Amino acid sequence: MLVYEEKVKRFINRHRLIKAGDRIAVGVSGGPDSLSLLAYLESRRESLGIEVFALHLDHMFRGEESYQELKFVEQFCKRRNIPFYAERMNIAKVLEETSGGLQEVSRRIRYEFFGRGMQKFSADKLALAHHGDDQVETIMMQLVKGAGSRSGIPVRRPFAGGEVIRPLLTLDKEMIEEYCHYFELNPCLDPSNTKAVYTRNRFRLHLLPFLKKENPKVHDHFQRLSEELNEDNEFLGELTKEKMKNIWQKNEHASSLKIEAFQAMPLPLQKRGIHLILNYLYDGKSSFSFIHIQQILQLLKDDKNSWELDLPHGLKVCREYHLCVFKFSTEEKQEYAFELNVEDQISWPYGGRFVLTDQTPHTRMESEYMILDRQVKLPLCVRTRKQGDKIQPKGMNGSKKVKDLFIDEKIARTRRDQWPIVTDGEGKLLWVPGLKKSKYEKAGSTGNHLILIYIRNHF
């Protein structure tokens, strides 16, 4: 048995990558890596009890040459009775019409294609041919770049309702080439892989040979490191999510973090907590680095009541009293106003519900209410704040600006525009829920009054 076959078999078994009944789509470029993986899985369809399909995307960068690679893979599959699906996509044209770098756009389009291919064949796994040398390059690139994640290429990950698996991470390039030569696969060779214009190629051409000279089995060590880091990250990631549940509030408008509770967490969880927030806000795209995480953590230690930090793509991070707020600066202020009559209820866009009733309210920990005279001018209005809003607080003489009320209560600036303000039908300010009721609340029995209930979940 070739080294290739022996190591891949052990790797698949150790990680339980494949089981009987799997329908596996293989991403195939026609190069040595992916062609060897397709040939290996095809030769074991019966022994493993699996079905194998081939997916090929022509990026059309090299015109007729790349089209011939498509035809080569198609014929390869035809000879081996492997179901084949291909598409041609003019990536250069897509780049002209969309924003993003070449590598980013190409990767997005490639995985969108893989998703369509899996759906076409009802595949539950996508096998990709990343190998041990790729792992070394990736981890070194992440370290040099200062990326937020530095654990390399995962052995498996969820994708398109199934998962991506990478059976060749246990091999180096030499083992793959030996396999191709032994079985006379005659793979295609992409000349762009030798051009130093691409970052990965520079690592491949200059750094990898040095590391292999120091230790020919360096890919094994990097793969073990990657697996250990991913295992640790998975455990610590789940622990971080659990800790963050009660101290991180997020919605479509902004995210906020309770600073005191956050700083009580161990530092490794704090780092992952900031990474979790940024990953959520950037929708999984790598628009931030470890340096940004360090900057935020350092500023959180500052005793100042307020500070502001600008991150990529217009994301602002600022401290406002006891909160750290994350918000994209391009977001415009949203103004809302809802009318409320007896037995009506409305949902507040930033969290919570209001109900106006003449029934005695049930006591609930997450709700509060205000008792109003039946002569109150209806409909009530629940709205966002306006400049110059004033309230005549219950038990106090005179009036108070709502702006000053927010300052006294140390409400973050970014939350003030989200806070509900309740007025009567003539615009008289009745209530700032969670903060202050006006003198218009009626004390005593609720027998002949209206009750405005606020069932909250944020404020």
Automatic annotation (TrEMBL):
Q: Record-annotated residues binding ATP?
A: S29, G30, G31, P32, D33, S34
Keywords, comma-separated and alphabetical? ATP-binding, Cytoplasm, Ligase, Nucleotide-binding, tRNA processing
What's the catalysed reaction? cytidine(34) in tRNA(Ile2) + L-lysine + ATP = lysidine(34) in tRNA(Ile2) + AMP + diphosphate + H(+)
Locate the Lysidine-tRNA(Ile) synthetase C-terminal domain: which residues? 380-452
Under Enzyme Commission nomenclature, its number is 6.3.4.19
Alphabetical list of PANTHER family matching this protein: TRNA(ILE)-LYSIDINE SYNTHASE-RELATED (PTHR43033:SF1)
- Domain-level remarks: The N-terminal region contains the highly conserved SGGXDS motif, predicted to be a P-loop motif involved in ATP binding.
Report the protein's function.
Answer: Ligates lysine onto the cytidine present at position 34 of the AUA codon-specific tRNA(Ile) that contains the anticodon CAU, in an ATP-dependent manner. Cytidine is converted to lysidine, thus changing the amino acid specificity of the tRNA from methionine to isoleucine.
The name this protein carries in UniProt is tRNA(Ile)-lysidine synthase
| Gene source species | Bacillus lumedeiriae
Give the gene name: tilS
